[in-house]
């Protein structure tokens, strides 16, 4: 990736494995971009220059070294989206506040079943748990930043892909 990212920017990336493939398949079934299956929010660079992000993942919301995400040819970012210093701080402060929040397996299953036009076990209920793409939507809402349209709990990685590709951050 050649674009410089800063705290508060979103990284939409692709991972291997069956779960990642299933998320991308769900996006394809909805006729949405199926480039990515994971979303992380850039938080800070440490004293040694390591760029850290916060992400929702199995095990809960936590820290992740962004090196692999930034090296991936699949990663998209909204780094060119205008953000004020106050908005960036709101995103990163919010991310720190939700560290450790449990992963929302019911929503992941619900998203998959909804993608297949089957039953939704979550029923649109907002839980005190997190999935990666909803974490980013939640943080952007709290910071007053535009993000992909739709219910914050239902924003999937494909929505971030489509939004970043569509916006392209107008000159």
> Could you tell me the strand content as a percent range?
5-15%
| Number of alpha- plus pi-helical segments | 6
CATH topology: endopeptidase fold (from Nostoc punctiforme)
Low-pLDDT residue intervals, each spanning 5 or more residues: 117-129
Radius of gyration: 15 Å
Instruction: List the helices and strands in order.
Output: EHEEEHEHHHH
Class inferred from helices and paired strands: alpha+beta
CATH architecture: Alpha-Beta Complex
Q: Assign an overall shape.
A: globular
Give the domain tally: 1
Distance between the termini: 20 Å
- Give the rounded overall mean pLDDT: 83
Task: Describe this protein's structure.
This protein is α+β, with helices and mostly antiparallel strands and 171 residues long. The chain has a single domain, classed as endopeptidase fold (from Nostoc punctiforme), CATH 3.90.1720.10. The protein contains six helices and five strands.
Q: In terms of topology, how is this protein built?
A:
Blueprint: E1 10-13, H1 17-29, E2 38-45, E3 51-55, E4 62-65, H2 67-71, E5 76-77, H3 85-97, H4 105-115, H5 132-143, H6 157-167
Antiparallel strand pairs: 1-2, 1-5, 2-3, 3-4
Offer a quick outline of the entry:
This protein is about 40% helix and about 15% strand.
Keywords for this entry:
171 residues, alpha+beta, endopeptidase fold (from Nostoc punctiforme), five-stranded antiparallel beta sheet, 6 helices, 38% helix, globular
């Amino acid at each position: 990736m050649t674009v410089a990212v800063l705290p508060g920017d979103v990284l939409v990336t692709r991972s291997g494995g069956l779960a990642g493939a299933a998320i991308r398949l769900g996006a394809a079934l909805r006729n949405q971009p199926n480039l990515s299956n994971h979303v992380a929010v850039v938080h800070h660079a440490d004293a040694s220059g390591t760029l850290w992000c916060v992400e929702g993942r199995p095990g809960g919301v936590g820290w992740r070294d962004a090196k692999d995400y930034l090296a991936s040819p699949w990663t998209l970012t909204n780094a060119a989206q205008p953000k004020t210093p106050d908005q960036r701080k709101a995103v990163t402060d919010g991310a720190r506040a939700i560290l450790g929040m449990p992963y929302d397996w019911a929503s992941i299953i619900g998203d998959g079943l909804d993608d297949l036009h089957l039953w939704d076990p979550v029923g649109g209920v907002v839980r005190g748990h997190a999935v990666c793409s909803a974490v980013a939507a939640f943080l952007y809402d709290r910071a007053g930043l535009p993000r992909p349209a739709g219910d914050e709990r239902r924003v999937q990685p494909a929505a971030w892909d489509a939004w970043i590709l569509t916006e392209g951050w107008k000159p």
